[in-house]
Design goal:
Order of helices and strands: EHEHEEHEHHEHEEHEHEHEEH
Distance between the termini: 26 Å
CATH class of the largest domain: Alpha Beta
Number of helices: 10
Shape: elongated
Helix content: 25-40%
Structural class: alpha/beta
Low-confidence stretches: none
Largest sheet: 7 strands, parallel
EC number: 1.-.-.-
Number of domains: 2
Mean pLDDT: 96
CATH architecture of the largest domain: 3-Layer(aba) Sandwich
Number of strands: 12
Radius of gyration: 22 Å
CATH topology of the largest domain: Rossmann fold
Strand content: 5-15%
Organism: Kurthia zopfii
Pfam families: 2-Hacid_dh_C (PF02826)
Strand order of the largest sheet: 8-7-6-9-10-11-12
CATH superfamily of the largest domain: NAD(P)-binding Rossmann-like Domain
GO molecular function, one term: oxidoreductase activity, acting on the CH-OH group of donors, NAD or NADP as acceptor
Keywords: NAD, Oxidoreductase
């Protein structure tokens, strides 16, 4: 039995039922332990599973996570039970890359100011704007999402520097550095973009020292996970003028509390974790699920698309 802990919209549900006729499906809006006991395959967004659910996973062999983030799941315990976990890594690249580019162009072409002037019916031609052409961007996490961001930026003649753990070559990156080389590369960057996942290695990877190394007019963007940088570090960088602007789609605490000082800075843009949102999100997720169902039926769990390394956490 295939058990969904969420109920997709009717057209997508009907497509699944017609595409995989030989399987029994169950759909709920929260985890039902009685259904969990019977499930061989579980489809979830990943945030509703806890250690307490593990004893009810009697027959479970595969968990398909309709999200890229799995950090809230009991990964260690799932590995011990021998349950395969796969996700939809890569489907976010189009909406997230478009979101990142939109924020960059908004800042470079002063769209916030233009919109404010428009509201006041002011014909103000003294709006400062600059070009992306010839600038340099460091992209932390040059995988599927980071690579798509790099591809779009290169179309604007931006030099792209990818940054990952190994420093090994990645698509659409003009140069590569490792995490150890980041501090030395930051003075060259006009834009610093992170799309890194949340792992032990990336937690608090960006420190006050990194902001001090950036250009005073640089743009810092975090679209990966809020654990990358402490909120106090962001506030300090803004207060000290160590960075030109910050755009965050993710935060240490979500929703960002109304009392947070981050709301008060003109050079801070708070995006409420929406950069990956798209009307095509589940459509793309279910395309991966259907492909993986064919692999699963062949008994080839080790070759599932986007199989998660439960030890590494991604």
């Amino acid at each position: 039995m295939i058990y969904f802990t969420f109920d997709p919209r009717p057209d997508l549900k009907n497509d699944l039922l017609s595409s995989i006729r030989e399987e029994k499906f169950e759909f709920t809006r929260q985890v039902d332990v009685e259904l969990l006991k019977q499930a061989e395959i579980l489809v979830t967004y990943g945030e509703d599973l806890t250690v307490e659910h593990l004893p009810f996973m009697n027959d479970l062999k595969w968990i398909f996570v309709a999200s890229a983030g799995i950090e809230k799941m009991p990964l260690k315990e799932l590995k011990e039970k021998g349950i395969a976990v796969s996700n939809v890594r890569g489907i976010h690249k189009t909406p997230m890359a478009e979101s990142v580019l939109a924020h960059i162009l908004t800042a470079y072409r002063s769209l916030k100011t233009i919109y404010k002037e428009e509201e006041q019916k002011n014909w103000n031609k003294k709006v400062p704007s600059k070009e992306l052409f010839g600038s340099t961007a460091i992209i932390l996490g040059p995988g599927a999402i980071g690579g798509e961001i790099g591809r779009l930026l290169q179309a604007f003649h931006v030099k792209t520097i990818g940054c990952n753990r190994s420093g090994k070559k990645a698509d659409f990156m003009d140069d590569m550095i490792s995490f150890d080389g980041l501090l030395n590369a930051l003075p060259e960057a006009d834009i610093v973009i992170s799309v890194l996942p949340s792992t032990e290695e990336t937690k608090n990877l960006i420190t006050a020292e990194h902001f001090k190394a950036m250009k005073n007019d640089a743009m810092f963007m975090n679209f990966g996970r809020g654990s990358l940088v402490a909120t106090d570090v962001l506030i300090e960088a803004l207060e000290n003028g160590e960075v030109g602007s910050i755009v965050c789609d993710v935060f240490e605490e979500e929703p960002l509390p109304a009392h947070s000082a981050l709301w008060n800075f003109e050079q801070m843009t708070v995006s409420p974790h929406v950069s990956s949102h798209s009307s095509r999100y589940l459509e793309r997720s279910f395309d991966i699920f259907k492909r993986n169902m064919k692999i699963y039926k062949n008994g080839d769990l080790a070759n599932l698309e986007n199989l998660v390394n439960l030890e590494a956490g991604y």
